[in-house]
Amino acid sequence: MSVVLLLSLGVHVAALVLSLVVLWRLKDWRIAIFSAMISLMILHEGLLVAGSATLLPPVWTLDRHEVTELAIGVLALISVYVFGRMMEKKIRDRKVVEDARSRLAAIFDTAVSAIITSDESGVIEDFNPTAERMFGYSRDECLGRNVSQLMPEPYRSAHDEVIARYLVTGDKKIIGVGREIIAQRKDGSEFPIHLGLSEVKLPDRTIFTAMIDDMSARKEAESRIANLQDELIHVARLSAMGELSSALAHELNQPLTAISNYAQTARRLLEQKAGKKNVKAATELLVKASDQALRAGEIIRRLRKFIVWGESERTLESVPDLVEEATKLALVGSSAKTIRFQMEAAANVPMAQVDRIQIQQVIQNLVRNAADALENWDGEKSIVVHIEGKSAGEVAISVRDTGPGLAKNVRDHLFEPFVTTKENGMGIGLSVCRNIVEAHGGRITGESDAKGGACFCVTLPVKQAGAKAAE
Ligand code: ADP
C-alpha cells in the first residue's frame, strides 16, 4: 500500500474521529454533520490520491499533485480541529447564557413576590405569574401599558410625576427605597402593598424592577392585634374601674355631703329671718354648694371619660396637664393619704401628639403600682413624677418611688402579661402600658433605683408616630 494512501487514510480516520468527538462533546448534530461532511470530502480527495499512487513508492517519489492533496488533507484536518474548538467555546458560552436565562426565568416565574419590569418611562416590559395573580391582569394585557395603571389615585398621579421628574432631571427619589402604598386590581379593588423599586443598568438603557408584596394579610393581622389591644385596654380599664369605684364613691361623698350641708344651712338662715345679712350669707353658701356640685360633676366626668370606649384619637396635649389629671385619679383612695406625692415639670416640656386617655391610663397604672408598692412599706413613702423635654423631639415622664424596688422574679419579665407579685393582681397593667406607649412610637422602661425603690420611665415622641411630612 502506498505511503500516501496510508497517510491519507490516517488523516481521514482522524477527521472522522474528530467529528465524533465534536458530536460527543458538543452534543450538536448540526456541527457533527458539518465536520463529517468535511471529513468525507477529505476522504474522497485521499482516495483519489491513493488511486493515482503506485504501491509503496518511496516518500521522495511523490509527485507535486500528491503532495498538494496530502497538504490539503492535513490543512482540512487542522481546520476541522480549530473549527470544532471555536464552536465548542461558542456553544459553551451560549449554554452559560441559556442556563443563566432559564435560572432567572425560573426565579421570575416562581417568586413569591410580584415582579414587574418597566422601561424608563414606566412602560411594563415583563409581569410575572405572581403579579398576574395579585393584580388579576394577564401578562399580555399588561405588556406595553404604564405601571401607574396598577395604582389608584393619588398614587397614580404621584407616580407619573416622579417618572416625569426622573426623565427630565434624573432625580431617582423612589429608587432603592421600600415603601407602602395602595395598589389597584383589575376589578378596581384596592389593597396595600410594599413596593421596592430598583434600577438595572443594561449596556444600552436602564430598566426598573418593582418587587411587590401584598400586605393585605399583614394589615388585617395588625388591625386584629390593634382590636385585641383595644379590648385589653378596655378590660384593664374596667378592672381598674372596679378598684377605683369604691374610692370614687368615697371621693364623691365629700362634695355631696358639703352640698347638702351648705344647702341646709342656707335654708335655715332664710327660714330664721330673711334679712339682707342672712340673704347674703345664704347666697354665699349656695355659691359654695354649686362649686361642690361642679366638683362632683367633674369627678364623674373624669370617670366616664376613663371607662368609655373610644377610638384612639391623638390630639396635641400638654403633657404636664394630662399627667397631673391622671395622677389625681390614681391617688384617690385611703392608702394614698400617707404618701408624699410630688410632681416636677421642667420648663422645656413641648406639647405632644397623643391619645390623652391612653397616656393617662399608662401614668395612672405606674402611679398606682408605685402607691401599691408603698402600701405596706415601713420606710419613706414618696412618689416623684418628673416630666422633661428631650432634645431628640421627645418628652420623658418618670415615676419614681421609695418602696422596696422590683422583685427579682419579675424584674426581667415586667412588661409581659400575667406577671405579678400581688395577691389580687392580674399582671396585665404594665403589658398594656407597653402596648400603648409603643403604639405611640415611644419606649417604656422599669428598673430598681440605686437608692432603693423603683423607677419607670416613659419616653414619647412629640410628633405622632408615623406622621411624616407629606412628600
Ligand atoms: P399588677 O399590678 O396587676 O401586678 P402590673 O403589670 O401593673 O400588674 O405589674 C406587674 C408587677 O410589676 C407587679 O406585680 C409588681 O411586682 C411589679 N411592679 C410594678 N411597679 C412596681 C413598683 N413601683 N415597685 C415594685 N414593683 C413593681
Average the pLDDT over all residues and give the rounded result: 80
* Rg on CA atoms, Å: 44 Å
Number of strands: 12
What is the global morphology?
Answer: elongated
Fraction of residues in helices? 40-55%
Major sheet: 5 strands, antiparallel
Q: What attributes characterize this protein structure?
A:
12 helices, 17% strand, binds adenosine-5'-diphosphate, 471 residues, single chain, alpha+beta, 55% helix, 12 strands
Explained architecture:
The structure is a single chain. This protein is α+β, with helices and mostly antiparallel strands and 471 residues long. The protein contains twelve helices and twelve strands. It has a five-stranded antiparallel sheet. A five-stranded mixed sheet has the order 7-9-10-12-11. A two-stranded antiparallel sheet has the order 6-8. A hairpin with a 5-residue loop joins strand 1 and strand 2. Helix 7 packs across helix 12 and helix 9 crosses helix 10. It is elongated, with a radius of gyration of 44 Å. The site of adenosine-5'-diphosphate has 21 residues, from helix 10 and helix 12.
